[in-house]
Design brief:
The protein is an all-alpha fold. Helices cover 77% and strands 3% of the residues. Helix 2 (21-51) runs antiparallel to helix 3 (58-84) and helix 6 packs antiparallel against helix 8.
Length: 312
């Protein structure tokens, strides 16, 4: 009886992004390039903000934190995805699968809370500019970032705890390219209907709470700017576009995958690629391309590099 309760599956097999061997070989280079650009882009933003004293403010500290989270989130799934393009047998150990689930929910949960923190920072900066330096001091900023990591970790542990002891004793083919709870839980040898509702509720509370807080923050920002500036509407949109774009790109696919009642495999895979591969790539681009201070910091960096070369 004890043996029956133990998991006898030592590894899972990914079905992968697609079935065509030729298409997988073709996708290897683009996905490898996307991952390389994601890593370089996010690390560049982090190092630039650390190196340039003009960017030592709460907003850029939070932006550096977001870039670091995106770098880590992309690294959980994309390297495995790209190497699997070369394999016929796309396996992952049971421990590796559980680790993927843990880190994906840890980083994604942390990013949700971090986006709320960034919205709060913008809300204070725009709506209470005279009190900004007092409200968003360095210590508070560090604590807010730390809280996002703590909430992400607690969320990930709660998700993992619900599936870790499930018996996996038969089917082991995961119809995806990484271990995602909705796909893995289907392979359990017991009825998981109630557990799936509980897991979705757990994720839903965090996602919906963060989304509502984001809506409240940006609505308050937009209303405040519209009421206190002559060109209110256009200025409000230009101020918040970057943040709102990132929020939509991140929350959109997650909400669709976890809460849409119908599961369409190819749609789920495309959306999974979007929030694990594309979104971490787009975030630094969205913020840097629309941010004058970041552009000026890059110019200063280039100028310093040229001056250093001239001295030699």
């Amino acid at each position: 009886m004890e043996e029956a309760n133990q998991s006898v599956v030592s590894e899972f097999i990914f079905r992968g992004f697609c079935d065509s061997r030729e298409l997988q070989k073709f996708l290897l280079l683009p996905f490898s390039a996307l991952y390389l650009v994601t890593v370089l882009g996010n690390l560049f933003v982090v190092l630039l903000i650390i190196a340039d004293s003009h960017l030592h403010s709460p907003m850029y500290f939070l932006l550096a934190s977001l870039s670091f989270v995106d770098f880590c989130l992309s690294s959980v799934t994309t390297p495995k995805l790209t190497t699997d393009f070369l394999k016929d047998n796309k396996t992952i150990s049971f421990g590796g699968c559980m680790s993927q689930i843990l880190f994906i929910h840890f980083l994604a949960g942390g990013e949700m809370v971090l986006l709320v923190t960034m919205a709060y920072d913008r809300c204070v900066a725009i709506c209470k500019p005279l009190h900004y330096s007092r409200i968003m001091d360095r210590q508070k900023c560090i604590w807010l970032a730390l809280i996002s990591w703590i909430i992400g970790f607690v969320h990930a542990i709660s998700q993992l705890a619900m599936i870790l002891d499930l018996p996996f004793c038969g089917p082991r083919i995961v119809d995806s390219f990484f271990c995602d709870i909705p796909k893995v839980i289907k392979l359990a040898c017991v009825d998981t209907h109630a557990l799936r509702l509980l897991i979705n509720a757990d994720s839903g509370v965090l996602a919906v709470a963060c989304f509502i807080l984001l809506l409240i923050s940006y609505t308050y920002i937009l209303v405040t700017i519209c009421l206190h500036s002559k060109d209110g509407a256009s200025k409000a949109l230009s101020t918040c576009t970057s943040h709102i774009t990132v929020v939509v790109l991140f929350f959109g696919p997650c909400i669709f995958i976890y809460f849409w009642p119908l599961s369409i495999t190819w749609v789920d895979k495309v959306l999974s690629v979007f929030y694990t591969v594309i979104t971490p790539l787009l975030n630094p681009a969205i913020y840097t391309l629309r941010n004058k201070e970041i552009k000026n910091a890059i110019k200063r960096l280039i100028s310093q590099h040229k001056n250093t070369k001239c001295n030699f």
